[in-house]
Design goal:
The structure is a homodimer.
Chain A: E1 18-30, E2 35-42, E3 52-53, E4 56-58, H1 65-76, E5 77-78, E6 82-90, E7 107-117, E8 123-124, E9 132-136, H2 147-164, E10 175-176, H3 178-189, H4 196-206, E11 209-216, E12 224-229, H5 231-234
Parallel strand pairs in A: 1-7
Antiparallel strand pairs in A: 1-2, 1-4, 2-3, 2-9, 5-8, 6-7, 10-12, 11-12
Chain A binds a DNA duplex (27 and 27 nucleotides) through helix 4.
Chain lengths: ~240, ~240
DNA sequence: ACAAAAGTGTTTTTTATACACCCATGC
DNA sequence: GCATGGGTGTATAAAAAACACTTTTGT
């Protein structure tokens, strides 16, 4: 930041003091049940005691914002494979009731992060009796603070990301069928986002999915080929506009 | 933010204290000379005294982040028409030399904003002898703090925004020729981003530019029609994926 | 044999790209 | 007249969208 040309704040305009927190919007897709889920935690203290909220934390000394996001995530769930990026920073005055309205107390800034995690391996951790649970996106309750707004913002980002970046493959198993990819897309973007056979053709033409030749049977029907995400083949496509829709 | 399940920070992990600043990446296009410009200010105090930097400020009591971004912008230039949005939040420990390394002093968080302003009406303000100047993007010097990184991030955002949202029309005059739009795109995205006649056809097919019928001559050649951005016709296209490239 | 799931191909429509060409003005 | 920039049209290629069809399995 540059603080010139005024090194000292004007007495009539004192600087705000901030507490900085990180809030995570953590999504996961339960492919078995075609459900898009968000992780929420139940608050134990005021304000908003007993309300559900996004998992969040305050940033510690020497800790980067992204480290804090990873820390809060790993306190709530145990997961190996995930995608995480910064979402947006919410810092309007009055967004936290602990800000004393008349006395201009500390402001509460929230740097939000967006994550997509692999559902099958995600293990919920119940620390100190705090409740942690997956919620279907259609059944999100009233959340603490401005967390409904943050979550909606994250949901938008999720849909956008899915269309032009390969985050799906961060969260699929190492070997997957093309139908599993399609189901994942359907669950997040809604049915009818695209015809399966066209989706399939488009995806394969991009050239970074390699057929292992291994076949798997899911009950009746022809066995499907297992594919693998080929990071090397994808590398040259990085930063190029992709379309998966 | 949710601060459960630990209401008090662990003594071995004290919370960081933050100063929160806003830094603006302000772009403008000098259409007369086909130049893409960024606004920089010269720092007067340490750290980085006499270095160029992004225009920034600390957030005041009762002031929203976006208000702070608008304030710093209006302290440096006088401009009516602009587009502004939040860019990214940079908060790594050690990004500001004023953070005492051993003693874990205050952290300096920077919430960056991205702006595009109308060049013709932008009037530079020289307050308290502080220097403010436009720099061609190819000639950006070494900046204070991590501001080169922030500026590059803003430049990426600018190019992306231009392709799928109508920010160009926030910054063009009320009445403009299609060639002026094309020039603006060329200056930001580089020559050869698209054939002019195809660009033109695509743009008109979107249906939110209305021909006023007024003709204007720029020296030799056939006079061009002046167009106007029709906000009403654009409204239904909001939130829909547009392609201008 | 038949249903179910996987995978291929075909047809139609739309969009992108690269141009060629006509139009209106200043000099 | 002709250079200059504005504007239209066309021909080709590529991509998106819809959907019919074949293949391979379980029962």
């Amino acid at each position: 930041m540059s603080y010139n040309p005024q090194p000292q704040p004007h007495p009539k305009h004192p600087l705000a003091e901030f507490k900085v927190g990180v809030d995570n919007v953590i999504f996961s897709v339960d492919t078995a049940n075609n459900r898009l889920l968000a992780l929420l935690v139940k608050r134990l203290q005021d304000p908003f005691a007993n309300s559900w909220s996004l998992p969040g934390t305050l940033v510690r000394e020497g800790e980067s914002l992204e480290d804090a996001a990873h820390r809060i995530l790993s306190e709530k769930i145990k997961v190996e494979n995930l995608y995480l990026e910064q979402l947006y920073t919410f810092g309007n005055p009055g967004r936290d009731p602990r800000e004393a309205k008349e006395s201009f107390g500390d402001r509460y800034l929230s740097v939000s992060y967006f994550a997509l995690v692999r559902f099958e391996e995600a293990e919920l951790l119940f620390n100190q009796g705090g409740m942690t649970a997956w919620f279907m996106l259609q059944k999100i309750p009233q959340l603490a603070f401005d967390h409904n707004k943050i979550l909606n913002y994250g949901y938008q980002r999720l849909r956008n990301k899915l269309e032009y970046s390969p985050i799906a493959f961060d969260v699929l198993p190492d070997l997957f069928t093309l139908n599993e990819v399609y189901q994942l897309y359907c669950t997040i973007l809604g049915e009818n986002f695209s015809d399966y056979s066209n989706f399939r053709t488009r995806l394969l033409k991009l050239g970074f999915l390699s057929d292992t030749g291994i076949k798997v049977s899911r009950g009746a029907g022809r066995p499907a080929s297992l594919y693998r995400f080929d990071a090397e083949a994808f590398a040259p496509l990085k930063n190029k506009p992709l379309v998966f829709i």
